[in-house]
Specification:
alpha/beta, 6-stranded parallel beta sheet, 20 strands, about 35% helix, binds thiamine diphosphate
Length: about 575
C-alpha cells in the first residue's frame, strides 16, 4: 500500500509544482525539515532561494509576485521562522499581493504544550492574511495548497498562510492534485450592473470638470488597455496613486501626475475642484485623501471597485460600480461620449508649471554643492531601460524616486505602499530580479532602511542576481528628520545615524561597489552601474537635510498642499 503513497513533504513540493510555482524563497529549521528534504529531490523543477532571514524571504516573494503577476511563495520553520514572516504578510495584505506562505509546525501531538519552537502562527497571522489554515493530516495538504493558491490569486489578491504540522509532512498519503476552481461562500466574479454603468455614464457625460484617479486595481485587474481606451474616448485627465503608477504611461496626454502626501501639486489641489471624480481601483487611502472632511466635497464620486468592503469606507460615492475594472471600464467606454476638456486640462498644466519652477527645477539643478536625491534619481531615470523596475524602500528616497522616475509600463514599480515597511526594498528587489535576470532592477534605499535587511546582500551574492542597488545616504532617518524639522521645532531626537563603511560591506559580499560624493562623478558612476553585468552597489552621499516637497501635512486638506 505504502508503495503508491508519498510523504506529506513530497506532496507539499509536488503541489507547488502543480500550481506552476517556479521559485520559492525560504529558510529552513526543525519543523519544516521534511519539506526541505523533499526539495532536494525536486530542485530541477522548483528552484529554492535561501535568503538570510525569513523577512527577506517573504519580501522577496512579494517582489517576485509584484513584477510577475504570479503568486509568490515562501517557506519557513515554526516559531521564530513563522513570526519573522508576519511583517511581510501584513505588508502583502494591505498592498493586495498574492502570496502562499508555508510554515512548518510542531507535531500535532505536541500542539498546545509549549513545545520547542511552537507558536500559534495561525492565531497571530489571522488579521494579516486573506486566509490561513493549519493542516494536521497528510490527506489535507494538497487540498489546502490548492485552496490557498486559489484564494491568494483570485478576486482581490492577498497573502495566505498554510501551517503544516511535522507529522503531516512525515506521514504517507496519495497524491492526486485537484486544483481549486472555486467554492461556495467565496465569489470572485461580480458581474457589473447595467444600471450602475448607466448612472455613471450619465454623470460623466454631464460633467464639466471630470477627473479620474486610478490605483493598483487597474494593474491587478489587468485593465491597463481598458483604462487607456476609456481616457482616450472620454478625454478625461487622470492621476495615479503610489501603487497605480505604471498602469498608464506617464507619456500619455491624459496623464496629469501623482496623488498623495508627496505627489504632484496639480493632481492633489484639483481634486477639490473637479465636479465628477471617477475612482478606478483605488481605495481612498488617507495618504491620498488628507483630511476626509474636506476631501472632494464638491464632487459627485463614482467608484469602480472589485471589493465591496471599499465602497463608502472612506469616501461616500454617488455611484458604486462593483466588479473588475477591466469589465466596468470597457462598459463605461462604450457608454460615454467622445469629449475633451481643454480648459480643465490647462489648469493642470498651469499648476504643473508652478511645481516645476518652485520644486522640480531647484531639485534637479541645485545651486548648493551637496547632491540632492532628486538629481540622482533624475539621472538614473534618464539612462535606465524603458521597462526597468524600480524597487524602493520607505522614506524620503522612496517619495523622491517615485516622483522622478518616469513609469511607462505596468508592474515596473515595487514599493511598500500601505504598510510602509522599512527593510522591504533589498529583498523585494532580489525577488523581482529572480523573476527575470535580463531586466534592469534598480533598488533605491536609504541608509536607515538598508540596515534593516542588509544581510540579503548575501542572497544577492549567492544567486548573482544583477540588482543595481542605489543607497541614498543622508546619514539620517531622513523622513522622520523632515517631520521633526517641520512639526517638532527641529528637535532631531534620535534620527541621526553614524553609519558603517557601506562600500566595505558590499565588497565583503563580493558585490562591486562605488561611492560618489561629488556631482561631477555622478553621471559616470550611474553609467558604470547600469552597464555592469552583475549586482552593483552605488552609494551616493546626499545633502543631509534635504526635504521632500510638495507635501500635504497630516490632517491637512488636499488643497493645502505645500510647495515649500
Ligand atoms: C519598520 C519601520 N520602522 C520605522 C518606520 C518609520 N519610518 C518611516 S521613514 C523612516 C526613515 C527612513 O530613513 P532612511 O531609510 O534613511 O531613508 P530616508 O528617509 O533618509 O530616505 C522611518 C524611521 C518604518 N516606516 N518602518
Amino acid at each position: 500500500m505504502k508503495d503508491s503513497m508519498i510523504r506529506g513533504a513530497d506532496i507539499v513540493v509536488r503541489s507547488l509544482i502543480a500550481e506552476n510555482a517556479e521559485i520559492i524563497f525560504g529558510y529552513p529549521g526543525g519543523a519544516i525539515m521534511p519539506v526541505y528534504d523533499a526539495l532536494h529531490d525536486y530542485h530541477e523543477e522548483l528552484r529554492h532561494v535561501l535568503t538570510r532571514h525569513e523577512q527577506g524571504a517573504i519580501h522577496a516573494a512579494q517582489g517576485y509576485a509584484r513584477v510577475s503577476g504570479k503568486v509568490g511563495v515562501c517557506l519557513a520553520t515554526s516559531g521564530p521562522g513563522a513570526t519573522n514572516l508576519i511583517t511581510g504578510m501584513a505588508d502583502a495584505q494591505i498592498d493586495s499581493t498574492p502570496l502562499v506562505c508555508i510554515t512548518g509546525q510542531v507535531a500535532s501531538h505536541l500542539l498546545g504544550t509549549d513545545a520547542f519552537q511552537e507558536t500559534d502562527v495561525v492565531g497571530i497571522s489571522m488579521p494579516a492574511t486573506k486566509w490561513n489554515i493549519q493542516v494536521r493530516r497528510v490527506e489535507d495538504i494538497a487540498p489546502a495548497i490548492a485552496k490557498g493558491f486559489y484564494i491568494a490569486r483570485s478576486g482581490r489578491p492577498g497573502p495566505v498562510l498554510i501551517d503544516i504540522t511535522k507529522d503531516a509532512q512525515q506521514d504517507f498519503g496519495h497524491f492526486n492534485y485537484q486544483p481549486c476552481l472555486g467554492f461556495r461562500s467565496y465569489k470572485t466574479h461580480i458581474p457589473v450592473e447595467k444600471t450602475a454603468i448607466q448612472e455613471a455614464s450619465f454623470l460623466i457625460n454631464m460633467a464639466k470638470r471630470p477627473y479620474v484617479l486610478f490605483g493598483q486595481g487597474v494593474v491587478l485587474g489587468k485593465a491597463e488597455e481598458e483604462l487607456k481606451a476609456f481616457l482616450e474616448k472620454s478625454g478625461i485627465p487622470a492621476a495615479c496613486t503610489l501603487l497605480g503608477s505604471g498602469a498608464l504611461s506617464e507619456d500619455h496626454p491624459n496623464y496629469v501626475g501623482k496623488l498623495g502626501m508627496h505627489g504632484n501639486y496639480a493632481p492633489n489641489l484639483l481634486t477639490n475642484q473637479c465636479d465628477v471624480l471617477i475612482a478606478v481601483g483605488m481605495r481612498f487611502d488617507d495618504r491620498v485623501t488628507g483630511d476626509l472632511k474636506r476631501y472632494a466635497k464638491q464632487a459627485k464620486v463614482i467608484h469602480l471597485e472589485l471589493d465591496p468592503a471599499e465602497i463608502n469606507k472612506n469616501v461616500k460615492c454617488e455611484v458604486a460600480v462593483l466588479g473588475s475594472c477591466k469589465d466596468s471600464l470597457a462598459l463605461l467606454t462604450a457608454a460615454v461620449r467622445e469629449n475633451s476638456y481643454p480648459q480643465w486640462m490647462a489648469k493642470f498644466k498651469e499648476l504643473a508649471d508652478q511645481e516645476r519652477a518652485t520644486v522640480i527645477e531647484p531639485d534637479l539643478t541645485p545651486t548648493k554643492p551637496g547632491l540632492t536625491m532628486g538629481e540622482v534619481i533624475h539621472r538614473i531615470n534618464k539612462y535606465k531601460a524603458d521597462d526597468a523596475v524600480l524597487v524602493t524602500d520607505v522614506g524620503q528616497h522612496q517619495m523622491i524616486s517615485w516622483r522622478y522616475f518616469n513609469f511607462k509600463k505596468s508592474r515596473t514599480q515595487v514599493t511598500s505602499g500601505g504598510l510602509g515597511t522599512m527593510g522591504f526594498a533589498l529583498p523585494a528587489a532580489l525577488g523581482a530580479q529572480m523573476y527575470d535576470f535580463s531586466r534592469q532592477v534598480v533598488c533605491v534605499v536609504g541608509d536607515g532602511g538598508i540596515q534593516m535587511t542588509i544581510q540579503e546582500l548575501g542572497t544577492i551574492m549567492q544567486t548573482k542576481a544583477p540588482v543595481k542597488i542605489v543607497l541614498l545616504n543622508n546619514n539620517f532617518l531622513g523622513m522622520v528628520r523632515q517631520w521633526q524639522q517641520m512639526f517638532f521645532d527641529k528637535r532631531y531626537s534620535f534620527t541621526e545615524l553614524d553609519n558603517p563603511d557601506f562600500i566595505k560591506i558590499a565588497e565583503a559580499y563580493n558585490i562591486q561597489a562605488q561611492k560618489v560624493t561629488e556631482r561631477g562623478d555622478l553621471q559616470e558612476a550611474i553609467e558604470d552601474m547600469l552597464i555592469h553585468d552583475g549586482p552593483y552597489f552605488l552609494e551616493v552621499v546626499v545633502e543631509k537635510e534635504d526635504n521632500v516637497f510638495p507635501m500635504i501635512a497630516t490632517g491637512c486638506s488636499v488643497e493645502e498642499v505645500r510647495l515649500s
